[in-house]
Amino acid sequence: MEPHHSESQVSSTYRAGTNERKDLRRQQLIDATIAVISRKGYTGTRLADVAAKAKVSYGVVSFYFKSKDALLLATLQSLADEYARVWREAVRQAGPSPADKLKAIVAADFAPDIANEKKIAVWYAFWAEARTRPSYRKLCAQLYNDYYWQVREFVQALIDQGGYDHLDAHSVTLALNAMVDGMWLDMQIQPREFNRDEAIRAIGLFLNQFFPREFPSEDIARIPAQRPRRLQAPLPSGGED
């Protein structure tokens, strides 16, 4: 005898499937928005462009997002959620020492799904708008605050455990965050020349100056190094569609 499913069970399953399809469609539109912003810039992005990129009708975009502002804010939120999720998961899977966890965060900062030409272009577009848009500024500030305090926690633990009492955790954390931001800017300006291993190696050398036992030079030497190169005029940034 076949199992009997109540009407409420069937209805619940249907709603779950419908919600899943809606979530997938919503994410598809956000991904299309990221692609369009990376190619056309923030002000050049139109809902019609997003619809064309997602291969849906204009009405579908309007159904899921009542305005361009709503779609753009959802896109920024999606980027922020992804970034936080990746570095938190990296910390969770890292070894028990604060050095292990700090290395994991740095590696997460340059993970291909996070630090790529397309997404960094979009981050910079939103950062430029954050000055005049409180919703963007609030979201970015919260993300930065969470990241800062997590990194500072590990830096302070390294100072305490290693007896580096001459160091100030706040200053080291600010400098480290500035290095990561600078590497992201390098990727934005010279995307064809950027090398993830080189970026991680440079940050490792920086940390070695403060925490030589926890970030030994012999470990850093194993990270591939690039020869210094003469910067060329950047190629037109079309991004990858």
CATH architecture of the largest domain: Orthogonal Bundle
CATH classification, class level of the largest domain = Mainly Alpha
Which word captures the global form? elongated
Query: What's the helix-strand series?
Result: HHHHHHHHHH
Binned strand content: under 5%
Distance between the ends: 51 Å
Number of helices: 10
CATH topology of the largest domain: Tetracycline Repressor, domain 2
- Could you tell me the number of beta strands? 0
Number of domains: 2
Mean pLDDT across residues? 88
Sheet/helix structural class: mainly alpha
Determine Rg (CA atoms, Å): 22 Å
Instruction: Return residue spans where pLDDT drops below 50 for at least 5 consecutive residues.
Output: 237-241
Largest sheet, in brief, is: none
- Estimated helix fraction: over 70%
- Full CATH superfamily name of the largest domain: Tetracycline Repressor, domain 2
Commentary on this structure:
This protein is mostly helical. The chain folds into 2 domains: 1-66, Tetracycline Repressor, domain 2; 68-236, Tetracycline Repressor, domain 2. Helices cover 71% and strands 0% of the residues. It has 10 helices and no strands. The protein has helices at residues 7-40, 47-54, 58-64, 68-93, 98-109, 117-130, 134-162, 169-189, 196-210, 217-221. It is elongated, with a radius of gyration of 22 Å. The termini are far apart.
